[in-house]
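User: Some background: our group keeps a shared notebook of sequences we're curious about, and every so often someone picks one and asks for a predicted structure to add to the entry. Today it's my turn. The entry only has the sequence so far, pasted here. Could you supply the structure so I can complete it?
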Amino acid sequence: MVSLADIQSAEMRISQNIIHTPLVHSPTISEITGANVYLKLETLQKAGSFKVRGASNKILSHLIEIGDEGVIAASAGNHAQGVAVAAHSAGIPATIVMPEWSSLSKQEATREYGAQVILHGRTLEESIGKAQEIARKGRLFIHPYDDDEVIAGQGTIALEILSVLPKTDIIIVPIGGGGLIAGIATAAKAKKPDITIIGAQAKVCPSAIEALRHGTPFRIPGGDTIADGIRVAETGVETLPLIQHYVDQVVLASEEEIADAMLLLLERKHIIAEGAGAVPLAALLNGSVDIPPSSNVVLVISGGNVDSAQLFRVMRQSLARQGRIMRFSVMLADQPGELARLLAVIAEERGNILHIHHTQGESDMPVMMTRVSIELETRGWNHIEGFKKALSAKGYEIRMG
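Assistant: Of course. Here's the predicted structure to add to the notebook entry:
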């Protein structure tokens, strides 16, 4: 099993190859929760996530053994980019096997960091199997989480946290295969035995919770999640004993809660976090974690590699759930001035029009009428109710949605 000494050695080994990321206090989240909440911003790490730590430690530990074919890994995105960057820094070639559902942006980023990409597998486990098959032909295989040297590299995050905030009470960490939390928990508990380590996982893929319940890695049919970085169907064999020994609790967050956490980080802290990176905040805000007042809580925001199209969809859906987008349609007489009168009502209520669309001549509409569909930016549900009342008072029959 990985020890504190292993993690301290990893810290010395990789120190010149990584960014020592900032630990930032969040007044907004602290006010919401009643705790002193800090964000460990691995979004600012090389390649946009913590993964370069473990990859660098693995490569540098075996540098003299690596042949001309270089290294190979399997990943849905962040580990791919971490290995690519670490290999490039070491001057060796890298090949990455990525699941077929990996986002296009993460595939392209991996190639741009200098790695060869092979698409194979419907699950991460199938991709790992393919990478291990190729590795037997003479390449060093770098597992995304189930490897002692990878775990030790990820554990350097805890050493950085405690060096900046020695009085940390709780660390909340995303958990998929378990490499990140296993390393952090091992280091943190060794340095500060009374610290609380909490894992946060997507509700649709609760592999770690099931592993803890069964006492062994347990394969589950995990569903699609915006937290694709922790979409792992089975917790690691090497990581589970460390999780069992050092992690105090594993909690879950829904897709909606993760999306809302991503939006909060973007709006209040100007941090672009991917779904997996926002899961600790989602778990903190959904009440799954018992936080003593005024305690020092660190959220590990593990990465910021989110596809721009996905970020757009997530933000819009989250805004709509919070009542900050209103979509409705009304029927207007198809004559001059009718649209202007409708827009005047919207202006009086201080609405900001995002989209407007006219529909004419459909089979369910009278000949002399037009349907106007409008999307508004609003301040919340009370503002939406104000719009409904104002429009109804002017004689408009509105259809929501």
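Suggested note for the entry: The chain has a mean pLDDT of 93. The two ends are 54 Å apart (CA to CA).
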